[in-house]
Amino acid sequence: MAETIINTPSAEKPPRYLALKRYLPSMTKIVAGLPAMGKNLGITLASMLLFLLVWQLSSSYLYGVEAESRIQRVLEEQGPAEAAKMEACIASGDVSCKPNTLPSPSEVLNAGQLLLADHFVISADKAAFVEKTAAVNAQRKAAGQAAITYTGRPSFVDQIMTSLKTVAVGFLIALFIAVPIGVLIGLNENLRVAFNWFVQVFKPVSPVVWLLLVFMIVKTLTLGSDSDTSFLISAVSVGLCSMWATLVNTSLGVSSVNQDYINVARVLKLGIVKKIFKVILPSAIPLIFTGLRITVSVAWMVLIAIELLAQSPGLGSFVWEEFQNGANDSNAKIIIAMFVIGFIGFLLDRMMYFVQRTVSFT
Amino acid sequence: MSTNPAPNLRNVMLNMQDLTKVYPTPNGDYVVLDNLQLQVMKEEFVSIIGHSGCGKTTLLTMIAGLNEISGGKILLNEFPISGPGPDRGVIFQSPSLLPWMTTLQNVMLGVKQVFPQASKKELNEICQYYLDKVGLGNALHKKATELSQGMQQRVGIARAFALRPKILLLDEPFGMLDSLTRAELQDVLLEIWDKEKITAIQITHDVDEAIFLADRIIMMTSGPRAQIGDILNIDFSRPRTRKDILNDPDYYHYRKHLIDFLEH
Ligand SMILES: Nc1ncnc2c1ncn2[C@@H]1O[C@H](COP(=O)(O)OP(=O)(O)OP(=O)(O)O)[C@@H](O)[C@H]1O
Ligand SMILES: [Mg+2]
C-alpha cells in the first residue's frame, strides 16, 4: 500500500547523463516497435517508388508533346527536310535541340551531381584564392585597409548556407520581437485589446508586401551607406512574416495559465518578477515553442519568395536565376532546389519538434 | 451540543463576523453566505461539512484572501485580512504542484519567500525536514509529474506546513484519492499536525475523516444564504489513532449526529 520509499535516507541528485536518458526511447520500446517501423518503412519506400514512376511517366509524356510541337513548328516554318533533321537531332539527345520541359528523375539526379561537383570546384578555387591573398591581406590589415575578398560565383551549397543564415537571422528577429511582446500582451488584458486589431490585420499580409514595406524603410535608413542591404531586408522581412504564430501563441500561453498555479503564486505572495519567471513563463513554454515551431516553418517557406524578390543571394535567387537562365539543365536544377528546400524544411521542423518535446513538462 | 462555546477572545485565532458573500449573476445577485459568524481557536482543528454547493469553498477562499469579501469581516489574530498571504497556508483539492519543478523546488519556492534571510543550508533543511515528515525524503529531485496523486498531495502538505503559517486551510485535500491512500494521508497529516498544532480549517465530505481529524465539526446548512446549522465537539484525546477511535462508543454517536444532520 504505502509507497515503499517512506523513511529511507534521502537520495542524491541523479547524475546528469541519467537525466539525458529520459529523453531517449528505451531499448525494449525500440524492439517492440520494430515490426510496425518495418511496415511503415516498407509503405514509405513503395510510395516513393510509385512517385518516381509517375514522375518518369509524366516527364516522358511531356517530353513527347514538346518534341512533337517542335518538329511541327519546324515543318511549318522551314519545310520537311529541316523537320527530319530536327527529329534526328532530338532523337540523338543533343543539347542544342533538347525539348525544354519537366525533367525526368535521372536528369535531376545528374544535375544534382553536377551541382555538387561544381561546389567542389568553387571551394577549391576559393581555398586557392585565400592562400594566394593571405600575404597581401595581412599587409593590408596591418595598413588598416579592408581585406580582399573572394567575389566569384557562389556554389549551390553556398546558396543553401546563405538561405539558412537568412532564416536563422529572421527567426531570431521574430523570436526577439514576438516573445517579449507576446508575454506583455498576455499579462495585460488592456494591452491585449490594444494589440488585437493590429495582430488580426497584419497577420494575413503576404510576404511580398512585407518585403516591400521593409524595403521602403531600410532604404531610407541606410541612405548614403553603400553596404549591401539585401540580406538585411530579406532577413527582417522573413522575421516579420513569420513572427505572428509565436506572438499569438505566447500571449495565449501567458494569459491562460492554470488558475491553480496563479493561486499558488498569490498565496506565496511572489513578486511580479518571480511570478513571471517561476510560474507564468514555465507554464507558457510549451505553447511558446509550439509557436516557434510554426514560425520556423513559415520562415523557411516565405524565405524563397522573399529572396527571389529582394535579389539577395540564397536558394530563392538560385531558383530565379536558373529559371531566367534557361540552360538545358536549368529545369533539373530547379527541381533539385525544390527537393533541397523541402528536405531542409522537414529537418528544421523535426529539430523544433524535438526541442518542443524536450521543454514541455507534461 | 450545538451552542458556540463562549470564546475567550485572546484564544481566538480566526474570527468571522457577519461574513457575507454575494456572487453577481445574470439573474441577479446570488447570496451564498449571509451574516455568518464563526470563531476558530488557536491550535484548533475544525472541519466543515455540508452539502455540495452550500458555500464551503467560497468560505475557505475568502479566508485565504483569494476571493473577495462582500460584507462583514475576517479577523486573523484580531487584524482584518487583506489579500492572500503565506501566513495562511492552503492545501488545494488538486495538488497544484508546479509540474516543471522538482519536489524540493516546489517546497523551496514558498520557503524562500517566507524566510528571505535564511541561508541556503537552512532553507534546504526546512524543506528536507517537512518532506521527510510526509515520507518523501528521497524523492526530492523527482519532477512533480513523476509522482502519483497521493505523493503529489504529500508534497502539498509539506509545502503548506513548511511555510510555518498561522493557519492552515484545506479544501477537500483528499477528495481525489482512493480510500487506502486517503487513510494514509490522513495519518500523515495528523502526525505532522500533532507536532505543529497549527490552527486548521478543513473542508470535507467524509464524515469519518471529519471525526478522526477535528476538534470541532461545523455543519453548514444548504445554500443559498447558507448558515452554520450545527456544531459538534469531538472530545477524543490526542494523539489519536484510528483504532482507538473506532473502538470508542462515542464515535458512533458522533457519526449518527452528523449523518442525521446531513440527511434531515
Ligand atoms: N465565481 C462564482 N460566480 C457565481 N457563482 C459562484 C461562483 N463560485 C461559486 N458560485 C456558486 O456559489 C455556490 C457555492 O459554491 P462553493 O464552491 O463555495 O460550494 P461548495 O460548498 O464548496 O461545494 P462543493 O462541496 O461542491 O465543493 C454554488 O452554488 C456555486 O454555484
Ligand atoms: Mg468546494
Describe the protein in words.
- The complex is a heterodimer of chains A (362) and B (264).
- With 362 residues, chain A is an all-alpha fold.
- Chain A has twelve helices and no strands.
- Chain A has three domains: 85 residues; 51 residues; 206 residues, MetI-like (MetI-like fold).
- The two termini of chain A are 26 Å apart.
- With 264 residues, chain B is an alpha/beta fold.
- Chain B has a domain of 131 residues: 3-Layer(aba) Sandwich (Rossmann fold).
- A six-stranded mixed beta sheet of chain B has the order 6-7-8-3-9-10, sandwiched between helices. A four-stranded antiparallel beta sheet of chain B has the order 2-1-4-5, with helices on one face.
- The longest helix of chain B has 18 residues.
- At the A-B interface, helix 9 and helix 10 of A face strand 6 and helix 2 of B.
- Adenosine-5'-triphosphate binds next to strand 1, strand 2 and helix 1 of chain B.
List keywords for this structure.
heterodimer, A: mainly alpha, MetI-like fold, 3 domains, B: 264 residues, alpha/beta, Rossmann fold, four-stranded antiparallel sheet, 8 helices, 25% strand, binds adenosine-5'-triphosphate, binds magnesium ion
Distance between the termini of chain B: 17 Å
State the total count of DSSP E strands of chain A.
Answer: 0
What number of domains of chain A?
3
CATH topology value of the largest domain in chain A? MetI-like fold
Taking pLDDT < 50 over at least 5 consecutive residues as the criterion, the unreliable ranges of chain A are 1-11
Largest sheet features of chain B? 6 strands, mixed
CATH H level, superfamily name of the largest domain in chain A? MetI-like
Indicate the percent of residues in helices of chain B.
25-40%
- Distinct ligands: adenosine-5'-triphosphate, magnesium ion
CATH secondary-structure class of the domain at 1-82 and 216-264 in chain B: Alpha Beta
Q: What CATH architecture of the domain at 1-82 and 216-264 in chain B would you give?
A: 3-Layer(aba) Sandwich
**Number of DSSP strand runs of chain B:** 10
Helix percentage of chain A? over 70%
Percentage of residues in DSSP E strands of chain A: under 5%
Oligomer: heterodimer
